[in-house]
Design brief:
121 residues, mainly alpha
Length: 121
């Protein structure tokens, strides 16, 4: 004995959808926004690869290990020389990060200004 309530047999799939749409439970629209999913993914990949490359350059960047030199360099780029709770190694790491970000933004603006050569031009 099945005690579950049964739907009326007269309601087939298309009728039940019409009833649901009429009651406001289902919204159906023929309008759509074309999404260029591939472009969005390639943009995200490009941003991710740029960030990985920036971090690699920061790791390879030569920055003085002398704390006074690091503070002087932070002053020259307009950054605070010491953040609360920051030690010499943290300061050095922050300087590397700042310098790599500036180099990355300079490279990006330079690549936008210089026209790229293609094999067809």
């Amino acid at each position: 004995m099945d005690r579950r309530p049964r739907l009326p047999s007269a309601l087939n799939d298309s009728e039940s959808i019409r009833v649901a749409v009429k009651s406001g439970n289902i919204n159906i629209s023929n309008d759509y926004i074309p999404l260029n999913v591939e472009d969005a993914l390639s943009r995200e990949k490009k941003i991710g690869l740029e960030e990985i490359e920036r971090k690699r350059r920061a790791r390879l960047m030569n920055v003085s290990t002398d704390d006074d030199d690091v503070k002087k360099d932070l002053r020259t780029v307009g950054e605070p020389i010491c953040l609360f709770g920051e030690g010499p190694a943290d300061r050095r790491h922050r300087l590397k990060d700042i310098l790599s970000r500036k180099a990355n933004s300079r490279q990006r603006t330079r690549s936008n200004l210089v026209p790229r050569r293609t094999p067809f031009t």
